[in-house]
Amino acid sequence: MEILLQQIINGLVQGSVYALVALGYTMVYGILGLINFAHGEVVMIGAMLALSALTALLGLGVPPLLALPLSLGLAMTGCMALGYSIERIAYRPLRHAPRLAPLITAIGVSIVLQNLAMMIWGREYHSFPQLITNSPHNFGGAIINDIQIIVFVMALAIMAALMVVVHRTRLGRAMRAVAENQHAAQLMGVDINRVISITFMLGSALAAVAGLMVSANYGLAHYYMGFLLGLKAFTAAVLGGIGNLRGAMLGGLLLGLIESLGAGYIGDITGGFLGSNYQDVFAFFVLITVLVFRPSGLLGERLAERA
Amino acid sequence: MTSSAPPLHNQQAYFQGSTMSFRYARSLLLATITLTLLGCQKSSTTDQGASGELVVRIGASAPLTGPQAQVGKDNENGTRMAIDDANAKGIVIGGRKVHFELISEDDQADPKTATIVAQKLVDNKVSGVIGHLNSGTSIPAAKIYSDNGIPQISPSATAVAYTAQGFKTVFRVMANDAQQGRVLGEYATKNLAAKKIAVIDDRTAYGQGLADEFIKAAQANGAQIVAHEYTNDKAMDFTAVLTVVKGKQPDLLFYAGMVPQAGPMAKQLKALALNLKFMTGDGGYTPEFIKLASDAAEGAYASLPGVTLDKMPRGKEFEKRFVAKYQEIQLYAPYCYDAVNVMIAAMQNAGSEDPAKYLPALAAISYDGVTAKIQFDEKGDLKGGAITIYQVQHGKWQPLETLGAITPAAH
């Protein structure tokens, strides 16, 4: 029983990170119909920036509890600037080009960012300083530590805040309007370039938070960490229904759970015929099954509800 | 990634999108290949050096990007140092002064990329290849080198399958996993008295092969394998498989894979409050492991083929020079250094840099390297082949014991 509970905790923590990154994919897709494949790399840059800032601040003798929010703020600012530049340089000139052109640019941006990070931060793994006493708590036989609790709670809080922004503010209304119909929104006086830029910046800020969470949780940062994370988060966004915010959250948490329960129990279910090496296969099998029956994902996108 | 095609809202547009995606996908692929080739095109100088000296190209391949980029770079550094040394010494082959030129390629630790890289090295007319780093890349690349008659010395591929393909051009300067897995399995059961053992491997040719050999040896010595779980060489999160392992309550966990996974795995073990002994193979024996696992590294075991550098006559001197130039030995740099020198020695013995002419000399070589006395058996495996077991003590890898069927006459 405690094993099941432990697997659920593992899945929820992992899933909340997926969800946070998936939001970035889904927001951009909702508004532009573009898969921003560079998003995973923005997460990585966020982690690297936070780590560099943290190391520098701690070196200056700033107390850890002040250094952490400061470096998070710095990383978020950096990533927002990066997200803005990516959109401005790589996507905006192609906004009216065939849909596949910006997709290819996105892959290009991703490769550029990865190599840039390799040049700046090197090939080595950077270890993340241990700032919070990472004491494990026993929770009904399962182990959960402080960082995991913080990751989970913070992810939920950020997602809730984002929902409020999108559904209760003027900016959110503008975002939804652009998502529904760019031209009509423009005619109604919405500055669509501004809205799109802000969407990219918001998504990138979330990416920075996710990056910091991932490296704090695993205790490392590496220039290649964005690739797999981005791929998984993209899968989560598709699973939940890309373009739909609630879908991204649901998809993320679900993918995390499927992965950990899959890895944990697939061997027992199939009597040892399939093992945990089929963890990813299992996740994609669920994805395909969902897409066969609901081609637009679990919380299928209805145009009017995008973003 | 076809699921990435955005849902379009009418049939016609859909079909249009779909045919376009094929076209774009193809040009994307072509563009990628072109870029890769361009990116790697470091130099293609003539065969004649400045003062009429003979230019001999030596190819090298390791993952220079991706999760294993750091160990890959370490390999390149080791290889480069040997080539720089040889050029500084002024090697003469068959009466002609030779200038060695390194052509270093990035195989991304990916078997598919490795075959492209291998073909590229062949096309560049290299006289021999030092590589690849991983077993998974060395095995498929070996066929291409063999078809073209180019000798290949892997500094670090340990999978048994690498030399078992029956190619005459294949060599390695490190003990294989049959030897390493056996020593590790015996050490775990005899010295560490493990009764219930869990194994995780990364499903690469290396991880899989090492895990199999380890399991064989552990079972032969009376241990029970309570779990055999899997991950991959890009993963970062192992909590799910570790939780499965925890449920089986083993007293030792063996991980067959490379350091980018071994480090975080040790850390996550501790976070899940698993109290057991952690053991890994040569893929985990790097200073990086201790950095990644931080305090969870303490007490972990790893193995490395060969005796420790300070036991080898030229080992200490090599270490000093390498550290002065590249800060730190990660893992296989000394083996790369040896591999290059063995190849050059064979060329000198044969009096030719022509692969067909120096290949027999290479097979018959006897060379005192910095890691071992290097002699090959008929398959191209290193003769002898000691294995040293290390443990992290006070934040540093410390050698515990050197084991192996035949201990080499290490002077």
Q: Which key terms come to mind for this protein?
A:
heterodimer, A: 307 residues, mainly alpha, ABC transporter involved in vitamin B12 uptake, BtuC, two-stranded antiparallel sheet, 11 helices, 4 strands, disordered C terminus, B: 411 residues, alpha/beta, Rossmann fold, 2 domains, seven-stranded mixed sheet, six-stranded mixed sheet, 15 strands
3D structure, described in words:
Chain A is mostly helical and 307 residues long. Chain A has a single domain, classed as ABC transporter involved in vitamin B12 uptake, BtuC (Orthogonal Bundle). Chain A is 73% helix and 4% strand. Chain A is built from 11 helices and 4 strands. Chain A has helices at 2-32, 39-59, 64-91, 100-121, 146-168, 170-180, 182-187, 192-218, 225-240, 245-269, 279-293, and strands at 126-127, 136-139, 142-145, 220-221. In chain A, the strands form 2 sheets. Chain A has a two-stranded antiparallel sheet with strand order 1-4. In chain A, strands 2-3 form a two-stranded antiparallel sheet. In chain A, α9 (225-240) crosses α10 (245-269) and α10 packs across α11. The longest helix of chain A has 31 residues, at 2-32. The model of chain A is unreliable at 302-307 (pLDDT under 50). With 411 residues, chain B is an alpha/beta fold. Chain B folds into 2 domains: 54-175 and 310-380, Rossmann fold, CATH 3.40.50; 178-305 and 388-403, Rossmann fold. Chain B has 12 helices and 15 strands. In chain B, the strands form 3 sheets. In chain B, strands 8-7-9-10-11-14-15 form a 7-stranded mixed β-sheet, sandwiched between helices. In chain B, α6 (205-220) links the parallel β7 and β8 (224-230).
